[in-house]
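TICKET: design request
STATUS: open
ATTACHED STRUCTURE:
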């Protein structure tokens, strides 16, 4: 069983106010100085995928998420199930 400290909550969303680009926010890694602004950006955007990644090897999971963002932002169609499959064992 994973405890809260053992996982990172994230959301992939499409920004709708400015660029229309896909972005990710790692909620549990936000600091006090940027927490409110980042949460507001995510809430104003169009939800695409969310979940938890394990804190163990989270850098690998973030690289997978970054590659998915690159694909989405280049116009490739990616569905949420593909994101879940790509993250595989990194999902908490």
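STATUS: resolved
RESOLUTION: sequence designed for all positions
ATTACHED SEQUENCE:
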């Amino acid at each position: 069983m994973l405890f809260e400290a053992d996982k990172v909550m994230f959301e992939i969303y499409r920004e709708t106010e400015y660029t229309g680009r896909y972005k990710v926010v790692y909620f549990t890694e936000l600091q006090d100085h940027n927490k409110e602004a980042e949460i507001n950006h995510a809430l104003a955007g169009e939800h695409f995928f969310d979940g938890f990644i394990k804190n163990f090897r989270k850098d690998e999971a973030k690289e997978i998420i970054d590659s998915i963002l690159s694909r989405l932002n280049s116009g490739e169609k990616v569905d949420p199930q593909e994101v879940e499959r790509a993250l595989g064992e990194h999902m908490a």
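CLOSING REMARK: Strands lie at 7-14, 22-26, 46-54. Residues 49 and 81 are 9 Å apart (CA to CA).
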